[in-house]
Amino acid sequence: MAWRVRAFDGFEAWGWRMHVHSRTPSILIIEDEPILQLAYLDMIESWNWKSAGTAATMPAALLLVETSSFDAAILDGELRGESSEPVAERLLELHLPFVTISATPRSRLCSCQCAGSCVLSKPVREDALRHELETALKGDC
C-alpha cells in the first residue's frame, strides 16, 4: 500500500508500508542529494531488495522513521547542512540498523552516527554498501 504525506514546511515524504517479517530487505533512504537517492534506489533494486521510501530533510526523515516499516536505513551524515544526529538517535532508540554515509570525516560525526552503525565515506562503492547493509541487517555493526 503506497502512501504520501506532507511533512513540515511543505516537504514531502513517501514510502510503502511493508510487512515486518518480509524476506526481502526493505531499506529506508535518507539522503539530501537527489542523484544519490536515485543511485541508492538503483542499487537496492538491482539486489532485488525493496525501498521503504526516501527523505531529503530532517522533518521528512523523522516522519518516515516513525511511520514506515523497514529493516534498515541508509543515513546521510548531513541533511541540507545540518547533522543527521536526531535521526541516528531515533534509529538507535528503535533498535533499527543503519549505515551512515557521509562526506564528513568520521571524526566530525556525532557518536550516535557511528555507534551501532557502519560508516562509509562518500563516494561509496556499491559492493561496500551492500556488504555493510547485510552486516547491519545481521546485527553485526
User: Could you say how many structural domains there are in total?
Assistant: 1
Uncertain parts: 1-12, 16-22
State mean pLDDT (0 to 100 scale): 83
Tally of helical runs? 5
Please provide the count of β strands: 9
Named at the architecture level, the CATH assignment is 3-Layer(aba) Sandwich
Instruction: Please state the CA-atom Rg, rounded to the nearest Å.
Output: 14 Å
Shape: globular
Largest sheet features:
7 strands, mixed
Arrangement of strands in the largest sheet: 1-2-4-3-5-8-9
What portion of residues is helical? 25-40%
Strand residue percentage: 25-35%
- How does the helix and strand content classify structurally? alpha/beta
Order of helices and strands: EEEHEHEEEHEHEH
Can you tell me the CATH topology? Answer: Rossmann fold
At the first level of CATH, what is the class? Answer: Alpha Beta
User: What is the CA-CA span between the terminal residues?
Assistant: 31 Å
CATH superfamily: Response regulator
Modified residues (4-aspartylphosphate): 76
Protein name: Response regulator
Organism: Histidinibacterium aquaticum
Domain Response regulatory: 26-137
Characterization of this structure:
This protein has one domain (24-137): 3-Layer(aba) Sandwich (Rossmann fold). Helix content is 34%, strand content 28%. It contains 5 helices and 9 strands. A hairpin with a 2-residue loop joins strand 6 and strand 7. The radius of gyration is 14 Å and the shape is globular. The N and C termini lie far apart (31 Å). The relative contact order is 0.16. Keywords: Phosphoprotein. The modification 4-aspartylphosphate is found at residue 76. It comes from Histidinibacterium aquaticum.
